[in-house]
Amino acid sequence: MTALAVSRPRRSSRGALATRLRIVAGVAVSVIFLFPIYWMILTSFKDQVDIFTTPPKFLFTPTLAAYAEYMQRADIVKRLINTVIVATGAGLLSIVVGTMAGYALARIRLRGAATFGLLILLSRGVPPIALAVPMFLVARKLGVIDKHITLILAYSTFLIPYVMWLMRSFFMALPRELEESAMIDGCSRYGAFFKIIVPISLPGLLSTLIFSMILAWEELLFALVLTSRHASTIPVAIAGIAGDTVNGANWAALTAVGTITVIPVVVFALLVQKWLIKGLAEGATKG
Amino acid sequence: MMTETDKTAARRAPVKNPKRPAPRRGRTTDLMVRWSFMFPAVLLLVTLLAYPIFYTIDISFSRFDIATFGAAEFVGWDNYREVIGDYRFWESLKVTMIYLAFALPLQVVLGFGIAYLINVEWAGRGVIRALFIIPMVVAPVVAGGMWRMILDPLWGIMNYWLGLIGVGPMDWFGDPGLAMASIIIIDTWRWTPFIVLIATAALLALPKDVFEAARIDGANWWSTLWSVAVPLLVPVIAATFVIRWLGAVKMFDIVLAATYGGPGKATNVINLFIYEEAFRSLRFAESAAMAVIVLVLTMVLTGLFLRASRKLEELF
């Protein structure tokens, strides 16, 4: 029950009508927001002749032709594997490093740590292109262009700050007595952190990890700049298909690859949606 | 990353007792243990975040040597002078500003409005709120491509529907104004759900007794909204705006997939322009100078927004 709704007497007929109107409007808005995705998935199962029609077709004989054709022709499978490797690597690296730093910011008094935390927060304002240019030049000089690890490290520049701030506010909400009693009982700082704090934060950690992986999964700019053939990811392929002006709009390919990209992420996001909503809202308002 | 020595040091570290100062050696170990939590993040971010920024600044003051692919001699403000004299840079900044000026307020207002709509208590509320997560996890580049299909002037379903009510056909990507509108629509579609989530949490956190009091005083819906709800929400609205701003200045993927800056340069936002200058035209020094200018501009504006939001909070 929202507060605004309370402002009306609940059982009055006007209030009930207003509530019903809000429900209808809310459902309508959700349908509008979900339609584009529905349309993309629907189109991916269409035959070429069913795609380009007026009026647009909602009923047709579904086919997997777009998937079969595109999975063979382009290196989509390889790119998918690359994207999984990079998203997992970047997600894991950032969750470990970011969680420890977030814990330090929340709980351990360190001289200069607050300044460092503020600088990290400021780093969210750095345009990625200001990093992409020097990263490309340095990676080229070191000969690490088109390697998974390069992309993983590049992604950690925005994932570590993200994890740090989310986990910092998460840890600040935990009662201090948790580690203090453990440490009095003879646990070291590490023991208290790994045996008490980490297990208790597991749901929050998991949702932060999943969201970090999603952010890495969909990243485009660094992937465009730092990879070429071997380690290239799915978003680069989609940018290529969408921007292909020579062969015209290949909607079958676009929607098929787009659907493959979106489905796993949506499944994961819905699995952890409760934590995601909480974490996002808190990260946004307190961070 | 922890080294082995760090780990053994940790195991040997004495139990920390806040009331009694530890002996000297113990304190040093303790300090190491404490910093070891922070150290990996500091190390990674200094090498991967701070160093590249300084390198960008370095390049921006140098002549870029294509042969060695690195910064050559120091040229002072030359690159900056060239960039500031380049009308395309200003055009691109203008395009970015137009996008931001329309998209940000639209998304914040829509986000809070929708959050209010979907927050009615009924059986489907949880489902609706969960469904709103979906657009925000669609990769921006997929969003751009997907909408490019929907808005296609010839075969797109949008023009078909608009045709049914007698509008159009609209040349979404051929007309400069409409192309900008398309970008704003796609961006709004992708990002409004994020604001809806934050706004939902904020609405649920509003104190109920204040509204009860307003009701007893006979305040109507409109005045309750404007003199009770909005003032209470101002801090969250301001924070949301700043967060969305920090995301929106990075606009790149959607434009790249949907319009690639076109028609002409009508949607050529600054990040795409710098990207093209650097990686297509190989003008790294000028690109670095532009990146530094954008970085400074972003920081200054972010600072201004933060101050303004604090002022707003005091006002209400």
Automatic annotation (TrEMBL), chain A:
Stored InterPro entries: BP-dep_ABC_trans_perm, MetI-like, MetI-like_sf
Membrane topology, record value: Multi-pass membrane protein
GO cellular component assignments: plasma membrane
GO biological process: transmembrane transport
Domain ABC transmembrane type-1 residues, every copy: 80-272
Tagged with keyword Membrane: yes
UniProt keyword annotations, A-Z: Cell membrane, Membrane, Transmembrane, Transmembrane helix, Transport
Name of this protein: ABC transporter permease
